[in-house]
Amino acid sequence: MKPEALLHSRPEGLYCPPGNFFIDPVRPVERALITHAHADHARAGHAAVLATRETLDIMRLRYGGDFTKSKQVAELGERIDLGGVAVSFHPAGHVLGSAQIAVEAKGLRIVASGDYKRHPDATCTPFEPVTCDVFITEATFGLPVFVHPDPESEARRLAESLRQFPERAHIVGAYSLGKAQRLISLMRSVGHDAPILIHGALAKISRYYQGRGIKLGKLEPATVEGIAGTRGAGQIIVAPPSVLGDRWTRRFADPLSVFASGWMRIRQRARQRGVELPLILSDHGDWNELTRTIRETGASEVWVTHGREEAIVRWCAINGIAARPLHLVGYEDEAE
Ligand SMILES: [Zn+2]
């Protein structure tokens, strides 16, 4: 069987003809297998959805109970038969509930990894490499210049800034699913025990993380209570990246703008957004994680979905691995 007969790209997304399902489709389809709950991968309106419990729960929180007609939970490692195709979900280490999807038929196994990372993250199950013939990888940070620093050292930089500027409110822009909770968890791990204020857009998902046993410490709503001018002074306020530089931040004491993103490696991006304290914290693999992972899967062929495909494709060629870009559209990575 040729790999393309098992999985190939269509305008809706990655399609498996023998199993008649799509992986992370960007348009409504009959049956969708979803790697994780980020909005560009998990859309509402499919007739049937197969995903991990956490991904289904987060989709319900975001889209409401009627986001699909039929839901099925995929347990990690469990083999599910779909039209003679064996499908299984494996941890991706990206956000809570994130999974790679292995698709297998007639002795051929393809793994669609969705988004993934290998750096430590206490808020989700660590990535597990799955041996396969074809590995489908993202390439958000697929350039050798991207090497992410140790996450705790970035958290310590924020703690240090709080000590240095106790009169200023530290507004941290962080993607509301995954990054925000990881940042909070990291601050706890470096000894920041004070209550952390969170923007309303983060409340439901953060509460859900806590309900799944992820320790985030004391969280309080970032409301307008308190005396104007000293509100939030010396405190961490976590909010979606879109509020940085927005009027919303002006309710707090001399706001200091912090952004937690892999893109903060690029100083110009930090400057453009008026970020005073850029924290390099990513939920996507850096160059070393991507290339190490490709090796560990033992794949003889690599398909690259979104990001900087060229350098990864070239690296594969040099290392004797057949590789090509898939040119899937509809996936974004700006805020992550
Ligand atoms: Zn994602």
UniProtKB/TrEMBL annotation:
<dbReference type="InterPro" id="IPR036866">
    <property type="entry name" value="RibonucZ/Hydroxyglut_hydro"/>
</dbReference>
<dbReference type="InterPro" id="IPR050698">
    <property type="entry name" value="MBL"/>
</dbReference>
<dbReference type="InterPro" id="IPR026360">
    <property type="entry name" value="Xnuc_lig_assoc"/>
</dbReference>
<dbReference type="InterPro" id="IPR001279">
    <property type="entry name" value="Metallo-B-lactamas"/>
</dbReference>
<protein>
    <recommendedName>
        <fullName>Metallo-beta-lactamase domain-containing protein</fullName>
    </recommendedName>
</protein>
<dbReference type="GO" id="GO:0004521">
    <property type="term" value="F:RNA endonuclease activity"/>
</dbReference>
<feature type="domain" description="Metallo-beta-lactamase">
    <location>
        <begin position="8"/>
        <end position="175"/>
    </location>
</feature>
